[in-house]
Design a protein that fits this description.
272 residues, alpha/beta
């Protein structure tokens, strides 16, 4: 079998340790390093000392990310390989043997790395993914509020399309404050919702207990927190896609394609 990468290293990555096996024309050497930053810096120095040109590791959970972030600044070819593409021979179960096996496969050019975007795009991807999770949590919180209202026989969602909009929020705050008069609560309606006051009065006639008020108040606080976090992430993402603001605005004008959708696409596929 032909040798493709003369100076290569296979990494067996774990939460606390990294086992590295280097294969060079001078021979083979295996060492273990701590997964803490100090240990990873020692690993980088060790690779440089052996003049390693290619490094491969499995895409194990998130443990490969700090190693990749640290090594990508070096003059190396980094491969993050799907674990299913590195199947060990039965009986080889130690970390050292795993590292040696990865190094041997890399040594003979038998590994193909997964696509890893550059650091700027990876950071944007993490931001938009986290924002997406917060937006989903916000939707779940709104659902919890609606379920709580149903439990109190308050049918606000049957009349107001957005129970946490300006009008709905004012009514919810009134319920938290202990207001029970349907007419007074319906009087908090704003804009077009004022025309539905009779229906609102009927929908707001319920039985809300003290524990439900406490839960509603907590859910509204959580909703405010999520809104604030999403707003901050919107600003950070907007700053990072600033060089492409014109393209983002044009995409925002397309029906069904909002700004956040465009930012999600940029996070997944990059700027090309």
């Amino acid at each position: 079998m032909d040798v493709i990468n003369e100076r290569c290293c296979g990494l067996d990555v774990h939460k606390k340790t990294v086992v590295a096996c280097v294969i060079t024309p001078e021979g083979q050497e295996t060492r273990s390093f701590s997964a803490m930053t100090r240990g990873l810096l020692e690993l980088a120095d060790w690779l440089v000392a052996h003049r390693v040109t290619h490094v491969a590791m499995e895409s194990t959970g998130v443990f490969w990310k700090p190693i990749y972030n640290l090594l990508e600044g070096l003059d190396l070819t980094l491969l993050v390989v799907n674990a299913r593409h590195i199947k060990m021979v039965p009986g080889r179960k130690t970390d050292v043997k795993d590292a040696e096996w990865i190094a041997d496969l890399l040594h003979h050019g038998l590994l193909r790395g997964s696509y890893i975007p550059d650091r700027e795009q990876r950071e944007l991807r993490e931001l938009v993914r986290y924002r997406r999770n917060l937006i989903r949590e916000r939707a779940r919180t709104v659902n919890r509020i609606q379920q709580l209202l149903e439990g109190a026989n308050i049918k606000l969602s049957s009349v107001a399309s957005n129970v946490v909009g300006v009008s709905g929020r004012a009514m919810l705050e009134g319920l938290v404050a202990g207001q029970e008069d349907p007419e007074a609560l319906a009087g908090l309606a704003k804009g077009q919702l004022r025309a539905k006051r009779p229906a609102l009065e009927e929908a707001l006639r319920g039985l809300m207990g003290a524990h439900q008020r406490t839960m509603l108040q907590s859910q509204l606080r959580h909703l405010d927190f999520l809104d604030g976090e999403v707003a901050q992430l919107d600003q950070e993402v907007a700053q990072r896609v600033g060089p492409f603001e014109d393209a983002v605005r044009r995409s925002d004008a397309i029906p069904g394609v909002g700004r956040r959708v465009t930012e999600e696409v940029l996070g997944r596929r990059g700027w090309t």
